[in-house]
Amino acid sequence: MDDQYKGFNDYNYAYDTQHVLGDKTFQDAIARSSLGRRSKNSAMQTSTARIPTSDVVTSSSGFRGVTKARKGSGITTGSQRGVDAPRPMTAVRAAGYSGGSSFDPMKMASMEKKSEESSEEKCREMERKVNDLVQESILAWKKKDAKLALEKAKEAGRKERAVVKLREQLSAVEQLNLDLTFTVLLNLAHQYMENNLLNEALNTYQVIVKNKLFANSGRLKVNIGNIYFKKKDYSKAIKYYRMAIDQVPSSHKNIRTKILNNIGISFIKRGEYEEALNAFEQCVEEKGGYGTALNLILTLYCLDDAEKMKDAFQRLLEIPFLIDDDLKYMEHQNFLLNQAISNDSLKQWEHKRRQTAESTILTAARIISSSISHSYAEGYAWCVEVIKQSVYANLAMELEMNKAIEHLHQGDLIAANQILAVFSNKDNKVASAAANNLALISLLQGPAKIDDAIQFCEQSLNLDRYNPNALVNRGNIFFVMGDLDKAFQYYKEALNNEASCIQALYNMGYVCRLQGKLEAALDYFYKLNNILLNNVEVLCQLAAIYESLGDSAQAIELYSQANNLAPTDPAILVKLANIYDAEGDKSQAFQCHYDSYRYFPSNISVIKWLGAYYIDAQFPEKAFLVRICTDLKMPEAKEFMEKLMKAEKTHQLRMQRENDSSHGKVSSAHSVPTPTPET
C-alpha cells in the first residue's frame, strides 16, 4: 500500500525564503548585481522609500503599517517581519504591488469617498430636521396654536429649499426627496388656511398642482375650490371642484360624493337650485349620506316640489343604519368582554351615527310636514308611518313625542295633551317622559293647574325615580309655591342623578341668590359658566350677584361681556346704564340708555331718564315729545318745540330772579348800619 504522506516535504527550493541568506548562489548573484554594489546608506534610503509588498506590516484589522528595514542589510524579506504581524494569506505576490489596488501614496481615493459620504449624510440630517419641523407644526395645529404651527411650517419650507440647493450643488438632483417636498408644501398651505391667509394658501396650492412630478396633485384642486368658496367666488369654486372630480376615479365614492356635495352647496349660494338639485341627486345615487340627503330635501323644499320631497325623504330612510342593537356576547362567561366593548371606539362611532341619523330624520320630518300635505298634522303623520316601515322604526315613538312638542310650539295645548296621554301605556321611561311633559304644560297654564302639575310630576317620578327632568320640574313647582328649600333639594337630587343637568345647576344658583347666599350662588354660576362658555344668561346672573356685593367694576365687566354676545338686548343696556348713573358717569349712562331706547322705544323708564337728562343739559328741542312728533312728521312738532323753549326760558328767568333776590337779602343782612351823630 502506497504511503499517503509520500512527497509531502518535497518542494522547490527557489521558494525557500527562510534559508535564502544561506544560499551561496543567491548571495553571489546579489554581489554581482547593482544592488550588491550600493552603499549601506543608499540601501537604507531605498528600503525606507520603497514599499515592497512582502515587507508591509499588516495588523489584525487590515491596516498597513510602516516598512521595517533589516539591520545591516539593504533588503528586507518576509522572514524579518515584526513578531506581532500575522503571516500573509498568500505566499506569492508580485513585488511592489498590492492585490487589485492602484498605487495611491496620498490616499486621495479614500478621502474623496469620505467626502461624498459626509455630504450625503449632511443632506439626510437636514431632511430629518425638516421632517421634525413638519411634525411639530402639525402637533401645534392639533393644540389649536395656529400661529406657532404656521411659523414651524415656514421654517420647514426654508430648510427644505436649503436641502434642494445643496443637492443641486452636489449634482445629486436624481436623489431629491419629492415626498418630503410635497409634504412641506401641503402642510404650509394648510397652515395658511388655518390662519385665514387665503391668498398665500392659494399660491402654495398652485405651486403643488402645477408641478407634474407630484403624484395625484390634481386632487388638491378641491382645496383651491374651498379657498374660492371661502372668498365667496362661487363660480371659480365650482370650476375647480369639477376639475378635481375629473381626477378622482369612480371607485373612490366617498371623495366623489364630498366634492359633489360641495358643488351643490356652491350652486345653492348662487341661487341656482336646479343645478344644485342635479348635483345632490347624483351625490345620493353614488353613495349618499345623511348630510347630502338632507341637502337634497332642503333643495326640493326651496323648489316647493311636494312629490319629490316625499321621494327624497324615503331615500333618506334607505340609507343603511349599520348599527347592531343586540349584545354580541350574551353568555355569562363573556360578561367582562361585553362590558369592555360597551364603550370602545366602535361603540362610540355607533352612538355618534345614531345621533346623526335621529337628528337628520327628525329635522327633515319637521321641515317637509307642512309642505307635503294640506296641514302640518297630516304631513307629520305621513312621515311617522313611513318611518315605521323602515329600518329606523325605533325612531317613530320619538317622532310621536316630538309631534307633541311641535304642537306646543304652535300653541295647540289640547292636541299636545292628547298625544302625550297616549304614551301613558308605554314602557316606564317613555311614560315617565310623557308625564313630565304633561306636568310642564300644566305648570305653564298657571296657578289653576298647579294640582294637575303636581299629579303628573309624581306620576313621572313613580315610573322613573332617577329622571332628572322630572326632578327639576318638581323643584320648579315648589319654587312657584314659594318653598325655596324644597325646590333646592329637588334640584340637588337631579344634579346628583345626572351631573350634566345644567337646568338644575342654574336653578340652584338662582335659589341661592334669592336666599341671599351670594357666595354659594357665585360658585354654582361659575361652574355653569365653565360648562356653557359665553352664555348670556349666566353672565347676567354673575353680574347681578357682583352688583349686589357692591363690586361695580366686576359687574360692569360681566355686563359688557354679555352685551358683546347680545348687542341688541335692551335690558342689558339698561343694567349698564343704571350702574354708570350710580357711579356718576352721566355720559356713559346716557349712551347706554340711548342705545336701549333705539332697540326698545316703548320702555317708559328709559324715556323718563332721557327726558330728564335733556332738560338738565338744556336741550329742549331734543325732548321726547318733540322728538316723537318729528319722527312721525306731525305738524305739532314745531308748536311743541316753541312752547317748550318758552317754558325753558321762563324757567331760567324765574331761577335768575330767585338768585338775585336771595343775593340782595344776604348783602343787606351783612351791611354795616350808619352811626347817628350825638347831640
Automatic annotation (TrEMBL):
Query: What are the TPR repeat spans here?
Result: 218-251, 257-290, 468-501, 536-569
User: InterPro entries recorded for this chain?
Assistant: SecYEG/CpoB_TPR, TPR-like_helical_dom_sf, TPR_rpt
Can you cite a GO biological process for this protein?
non-motile cilium assembly
Provide ranges: composition bias, Polar residues: 41-62, 664-673
One GO cellular component assignment for this chain's record is: non-motile cilium
As one GO molecular function, the record gives: kinesin binding
Keyword Lyase recorded: no
Write out the ranges of the annotated region (Disordered).
Answer: 36-85, 651-679
Q: Which domain of life is it from?
A: Eukaryota
Asked if Lipid biosynthesis is a keyword of the record, the answer is no
Basic and acidic residues biased stretches: 651-663
Entry-linked Pfam families: TPR_12, TPR_21, TPR_8
**Which keywords does UniProt give here?**
TPR repeat
Q: Which residues form the Ancillary SecYEG translocon subunit/Cell division coordinator CpoB TPR domain?
A: 381-500
PANTHER family linked: INTRAFLAGELLAR TRANSPORT PROTEIN 88 HOMOLOG
This protein is called: TPR_21 domain-containing protein
Q: Which organism is it from?
A: Dracunculus medinensis
